[in-house]
Design brief:
The structure holds 2 protein chains of 2 kinds. By secondary structure, chain A is α/β, with parallel strands linked by helices. The longest helix of chain A has 15 residues. Chain A is built from 8 helices and 11 strands. In chain A, strand 4 and strand 5 form a beta hairpin. Chain A is globular. The longest helix of chain B has 24 residues. Chain B has a 5-stranded mixed β-sheet, with no helix packed on it. By secondary structure, chain B is of the alpha+beta class. The chains are: A alpha/beta, B alpha+beta. The interface between A and B is medium-sized, with 19 and 21 residues.
């Protein structure tokens, strides 16, 4: 674990769980999905991140201070979620520390929840969800469950670091990416992602409340989206639109 | 003898542009550091985006809770438009669990600067899934001939 970043455990952590990640990114898909999972599965805070690399802020809930990056969980699931945009220059130590911590808890697989931006998103009736995986075996398992694979392209942000580090450390990892708006909160995309998550993580979650609260979430998430957009521009997020040129 | 290596002109230019980019980003961040609401005017500022194509400028605005028939888009100068929409219901801070501010909001409001010349009078609007699309045909005021 990095000395700059520490995970402080508040409760006993179950071993062999599935570890999920929901970080601010395009459409805030991961954060919206994570927030819905926390309320639907009654996940409680089991650990939090302590680091001087984080911005000098705390999140107040019911008058009490909390770290902006926390891990929620139950017996089967661990969910790392950030309530603030993570800056490009701190993503590496933050993601590496979370993944090392998950490995120390023998998590069976890691799944990052995020989005993939599309133009004219408002005209799309049925949003697609794509997956990428850290090794060929898990990619095959994902395909066998009927999830579409993101074959070629760039990935930028926390999920890119997760995939790279999990591949290097031999941790089974999947990134789920739902088609979404680039810079508008997208609860509908989060709902589609959670439907696909059910297929690969044996996590059953009803998305009807998420869809009902769609407008409220969009209004409430404007400020987080705005700040996330600033960080996305620093990490050249629009590179995900680029057509890759592979040299084989 | 001094071993100090001379920097190439390319390094100097590259550093100059990196420095300029950093300053621009800091300036831009400072400009947008303001609340996304105004309790005196009872307005909330929606998120917006601008795309310039060869033929038109497309502005999109995310308008959650907007009553479609109350959406108003008005040019207020040659290059600025104002967007207003009444919300389906009044939103209070305590709807978001916030108790240290008071106020209620009934309108989504923003102004947008159009980056290239356009025909404001040929504006077209679409509203779909809570997203307002404003289409403005571009005005090509001059052309540089290819010799």
């Amino acid at each position: 674990m990095s000395e700059e970043v520490k995970i402080v455990e508040r409760n006993e952590i179950s071993r062999g769980a599935v570890m999920l990640f929901g970080f601010p990114d395009v459409g805030l898909v991961g954060v919206i999905a994570a927030s819905h999972l926390i309320s639907e599965l009654n996940l409680t805070e089991v650990a939090y991140m302590d680091s001087r690399l984080l911005p000098p802020l705390i999140v107040l809930h019911e008058g009490l201070p909390h770290s902006p990056i926390r891990v929620f969980g139950n017996h089967d699931v661990l969910l790392a979620v950030s309530e603030t945009a993570v800056s490009a220059d701190t993503i590496y130590p933050i993601m590496h520390t979370l993944i090392d911590w998950g490995r120390s808890k023998d998590v069976k697989k890691m799944i990052s929840m995020s989005g993939i931006p599309i133009q004219d998103r408002q005209d799309v009736k049925q949003l697609k969800v794509f997956a990428a995986a850290s090794n060929p075996e898990i990619l095959k398992a994902v395909k066998d469950k009927g999830v579409q694979v993101l074959k070629e392209g760039y990935m930028v942000g926390p999920q890119a670091i997760m995939m790279q580090y999990c591949a290097k450390t031999d941790v089974p990892a999947i990134t789920l990416l739902a088609q979404c708006f680039f810079n508008y909160p997208d609860p509908e995309a989060a709902a589609e992602l959670l439907k696909e998550l059910t297929k690969i993580a044996e996590i059953k979650v009803d998305v009807s409340k998420l869809l009902e609260k769609g407008e409220e979430i969009r209004l409430r998430a404007r400020d987080v989206m705005r700040r996330t957009q600033q960080e996305m521009s620093k990490m050249k997020k629009t590179q995900e639109y680029d057509i890759p040129m592979y040299v084989s | 003898m001094s071993t100090k290596r001379k920097r190439s002109i390319f390094n100097i230019i590259s550093e100059y542009f990196e420095d300029l980019q950093e300053r621009t980003e800091r300036f831009r961040d400072a400009l947008i550091e303001k609340p996304s609401w105004n309790h005196r005017a009872c307005t909330m500022e929606p998120l917006q985006n601008i795309m310039v194509t060869p033929t038109e400028v497309i502005i999109t605005v995310d308008l959650p809770y907007a009553e479609e028939n109350t959406i108003r888009v008005k040019p207020i100068s040659r290059d600025t438009i104002e967007i207003l929409a009444k919300m389906k219901r009044k939103i209070r801070f305590d709807d978001f669990g916030i108790t240290h501010y008071e106020g209620e909001f009934e309108t989504l409001y923003c102004q947008t600067r159009v980056p290239v010349p356009v025909y404001m009078d040929k504006m077209e609007l679409r509203f779909k899934k809570g997203i307002l699309e404003i289409h403005l045909p571009r005005k090509h005021e001059y052309e540089i001939p290819i010799e």
